[in-house]
Amino acid sequence: MGEKSIRIRVPGTSANCGPGFDTLGVACTIYNELELTLLHEPRLAIEIKGDGASKIPQDERNIVWRSVRYLLEKAGAQGEYPGAVIRMENRVPLSRGLGSSATAIVSGLKAANVLLDNRFTRRELLQFATEIEGHPDNVAPALFGGFTVSILQHGRTETISFVPKLRMKFVVAIPDFYLSTKVARQALPEQVSLQDAVFNVGRASMLVAALLKGNDKVLRDAFDDALHQPYRMSLVPGMKEVFQAAKKAGAVGAALSGAGPCLIAFTLERDRCTQEVGEAMTKAFQAHDIQAKAITLGLDLKGAHVLNHAESLKK
Ligand code: HSE
């Protein structure tokens, strides 16, 4: 049998969306691409272009390769394909809270699965991706697109993906420093009060209901969080002021994107305030001696998908 290649595009994601810690996520219109060729010989070649390229391992430790291996082992095909050529083109900023590791995991799983004639369903890929990543809130939107609600039930991941009634734009302020998810999780307490738990259950539920119903008035009160952001404030200088600046400039809400350090502002498309919000956020960061750049993203509806040649970033 000859070698087989495929090209996959996977959206970056923002997890938590404020109150939905480890539960809510959203797929954004910023993408990483992977071209995977499975080899019948034990040779691994990895080429990486784009964001953070020099920081990503190009050997057996590479997360895309580990995810490809994971799927091959699940399919019992690791003997048939002991090697691969991996070409990555990354646009999603590395280690900034926009799901770069989830895009890598999902792209490796999806690409290998397509090359094995879709041996596994998308739900099974979600399960594998969660097992690799440890939590589902980034891998779910990376796979399915849209906003996602995910839970773990006896080790199994359940996800519902939905498209809100309100058309939204996301303004992401990317500060010029890295923050590892591990460090950001170490900042969290092991226990929280019932009061804080209720605060978040209410807001996370209200956020989903408001998005589904298109209720932008209630939406404005639904992005606050008591479970993780307060404990992470000191890891992202100016976080509170950036949130306030974004809302003052017209955003309906603002949150730490995933485990940070990016901050994401949620705006209504009809308000056309993304430029003002981006400027306000970077200015508020600057007041804390943090350089940041702002990008505006839309909602990705497709999730991970096979790319035909004409769509490629290379064009
Ligand atoms: N939900 C995770 C966290 C981020 O806030 O630690 C997802 O990678």
How would you summarize what this structure contains?
The chain contains 10 helices and 11 strands. It has helices spanning 63-75, 100-115, 122-133, 139-144, 181-186, 194-213, 216-219, 229-232, 239-248, 274-286, and strands spanning 4-15, 24-39, 44-50, 83-90, 147-153, 156-162, 168-175, 253-256, 263-268, 292-297, 305-306.
3D architecture notes:
The protein has helices at 63-75, 100-115, 122-133, 139-144, 181-186, 194-213, 216-219, 229-232, 239-248, 274-286, and strands spanning 4-15, 24-39, 44-50, 83-90, 147-153, 156-162, 168-175, 253-256, 263-268, 292-297, 305-306. With 315 residues, it is α+β, with helices and mostly antiparallel strands. The strands form two sheets. Strands 1, 2, 3, 4, 5, 6 and 11 form a seven-stranded mixed sheet that branches. The protein has a four-stranded antiparallel sheet with strand order 8-9-7-10, covered by helices on one side. Helix 1 packs parallel to helix 2 and helix 9 packs antiparallel against helix 10. It is globular. It starts with a strand and ends in a 9-residue tail after the last strand. The model has no long low-confidence stretch (mean pLDDT 95). The structure holds L-homoserine.
How many domain regions? 2
Distance between the amino and carboxyl termini: 29 Å
CATH architecture of the largest domain: 2-Layer Sandwich
What hetero molecules are in the model?
L-homoserine
How many β strands by DSSP? Answer: 11
**Rg calculated over all Cα atoms:** 19 Å
The 3D shape can be described as globular
Number of helices: 10
Instruction: Give the SSE order as H and E letters.
Output: EEEHEHHHEEEHHHHHEEHEE
CATH classification class of the largest domain: Alpha Beta
Structural class: alpha+beta
Mean pLDDT over the full residue set = 95
Which parts are unreliable, with pLDDT below 50 for 5 consecutive residues or more?
Answer: none
Strand content: 25-35%
Helix fraction, binned, reads 25-40%
> Which fold name is given in CATH as the topology of the largest domain?
Ribosomal Protein S5, domain 2
Tell me the major beta sheet: 7 strands, mixed
